[in-house]
């Protein structure tokens, strides 16, 4: 909603930070409280990239907060290091490096496993700080005497001591943190992180190395945590050992959820609410120790009823108020959706890696897949020539989808070999195969349902334009060469240009099916597999989709599974019939139509009865 | 420094701790396996079991009644929690389930802190298990030996419920394939409620049985929760045998390491978990699929 104006959020943040010291004292905020809020907010910026944007809920951020804090504090108090900013940066690097190592282990699993592992890891750090490393960390005493920063500018020196003076330094750090976080979130990497949260399976299938990107998010979060930890020591002139406790991680999680995940500013808002309520409930209402119970109840209620937290709630409210007006305007417009458009130019497939190769584009030999005792595919030999349009038919349970999954390397064959453009791809990962130029549209839609149509296609196109892993954290999406063209072109091809900025969840079924094909198409495959592209469509949508498939078939090879034989036979040049996991017969549509064995397979012996 | 009696005594400590962890983890793992919800308030359930037993003991001076009341109270709490809150989260993302159970856990801890303050409370062991026992080669606190026996009986009971009853069959089938169980016309929601109650009760029972070994504080469940996670990761999520094996391994690692330096107990535990994650990512006895 605020995307139109560049640097709007940056400007608002700067204004807010400048105005704060003049406004907040009147609202009962002590400078020290404001500084603590900013430290939590900075800590939370990285955490929100990990949790809100990538969907990885870590309960172990205290490990990095503490690591960064103690490295910086140790340098400043015991090692005779005098440059405060330098120590903070070194602490940040140490935390990021730790995050990298921990991420390698924790990211071996996802979901609840990830949460459990991060909890366990954080606990280890707590005990290590207290015991084996207590000579360096001061054990339960922490490290007192952390100095505040001062900068010698030659003619004068600036010393940020405490209160509002120190605020200037911390606010500047926070501002830089916000700018970096915004760049990351708006970069191609940021877009891919959202895709991972939404649908990791499809993010992998369109050709992104999601493990690498998750690790990136983890390291970013650790770096922010490390810097914030260092600031905590500077702020309190003392590095407290409880930075390492599970409570620290828990408080961060709760503040982020209270403020609003996936907003970057949620943790700041959450910290404000948290620290304000803590003061207010304890002193003004005299609740004493009960303040945490009140916060706990508030938190549970928010998770139950206001998933987006405070910011999410405000955005919804804004959308509700402004949306009413917008919808009225839109209603008058949406009637002429069906206007036919000029067919867009066909889209180029990606360049061949070794153009000299001229054999069949795909050749599978002896492909077999067993699930325990069940044989899904057995000894399939299959070959498709470049530029061919091949159909695959077969009764339900013939093993068509399993066959496709093996070709795209989603499942590994029990035995057999797959050659793509003369290259053995057996045992490769689905991501690598997609990068080589072979991908599939799914039988059951696998879309990024939380994103818009344009964002969906952008994710797929990014994989083709940037490769499976690239750390262009500070490049804007607009800076990716050819991205806009490719997305617009795909939009036009699948006839969704009008719906480009609609969230996927609001699309009609037929539109979702077209987007599903569009996702595969946007990766510019040379060999495109389509698993029942016509399934569930109305007769009119089928005609449209067949037209679409014909137009994208130019310049690329396609293999199509479908049950709609009339449409399929009209479309393809050759048909392979699968039955009970084996190839029954291959031939032109005409040959297949008249083949006795095929009729037998489909009509189950009727043929024989007629003869008798 | 390492003497045989000392080592054997630590091995026994490890067995007692491991048995407790096995019981608590079983509760966590069958809830997760069946309902797909990781209950971060499980540590708080353990703690509340201890306090509920403590209160009963104050009034009745009977340890057996304390154990019964403690377990039943936590089971009831689990059922109420499932009915009122958890059931609304079955179709929400894992993160939300984690957040809400985490928040509930904090609420429980704070409520207990309000009522009983942060001071530690003591429940003495029952009269017949007081004192120390001469094992021939060393002396060992009788109650700790009894803990192993009591928990073994509880695990046996849980085994019978899981493997010999209709409910258990549904639970195990649900761990394998909850969609299928659903479509077989079984009232899954009632089963879910029972499972949540039984899983919570396992933690509550462990909480009161453990109370005479260590003193009760509101935060007692936090460490246990972390250890339980490690147990479940080592044993494999959703696996009852895995929880027992993982529990015993974790208990022994903590105890034996503590003999040399308590500070390294968690480090070793973590090292073991990492090793399992690298060699067998789905846990020692876990199966692929559920995540």
Structure description:
The complex is a heterodimer of chains A (612) and B (291). With 612 residues, chain A is of the alpha/beta class. Chain A has 2 domains: 33-317, ABC transporter involved in vitamin B12 uptake, BtuC, CATH 1.10.3470; 362-611, 3-Layer(aba) Sandwich (Rossmann fold). Chain A contains 24 helices and 14 strands. Chain A has helices spanning 8-23, 31-53, 62-77, 84-106, 111-130, 134-137, 163-186, 188-198, 200-205, 210-236, 246-259, 266-284, 291-305, 309-333, 400-407, 430-436, 453-466, 483-493, 509-521, 539-553, 565-571, 589-594, 596-603, 606-611, and strands at residues 143-144, 150-152, 157-159, 238-239, 362-371, 374-384, 389-393, 415-420, 423-424, 438-441, 527-531, 557-561, 574-579, 582-587. Chain A has a 6-stranded mixed beta sheet with strand order 10-11-12-7-13-14, sandwiched between helices. A 4-stranded antiparallel beta sheet of chain A has the order 6-5-8-9, with helices on one face. In chain A, strands 1-4 form a two-stranded antiparallel ribbon. In chain A, helix 2 (31-53) runs antiparallel to helix 10 (210-236) and helix 11 packs across helix 12. Chain A is elongated, with a radius of gyration of 29 Å. The N and C termini of chain A lie far apart (71 Å). Chain B is mostly helical and 291 residues long. Chain B has one domain (16-225). Helix content of chain B is 73%, strand content 2%. Chain B is built from 11 helices and 2 strands. Chain B has helices at 4-35, 42-60, 63-84, 94-116, 142-164, 166-176, 178-183, 188-210, 220-235, 240-260, 265-279, and strands at 132-134, 139-141. In chain B, strands 1-2 form a two-stranded antiparallel sheet. The model of chain B has no long low-confidence stretch (mean pLDDT 87). The chains are: A alpha/beta (612), B mainly alpha (291). Chain A binds chain B through residues 51, 55, 57, 59, 105, 108-113, 115-117, 119-121, 123-124, 126-128, 130-132, 246, 250, 253-254, 257, 289-290, 292-293, 296-297, 299-300, 303-304, 307, and chain B through 32, 38, 85, 88, 92-96, 98-100, 102-104, 106-107, 110-111, 113-114, 222-223, 225-226, 229-230, 232-233, 237, 261-267, 269-270, 273-274, 277-278, 281, 291.
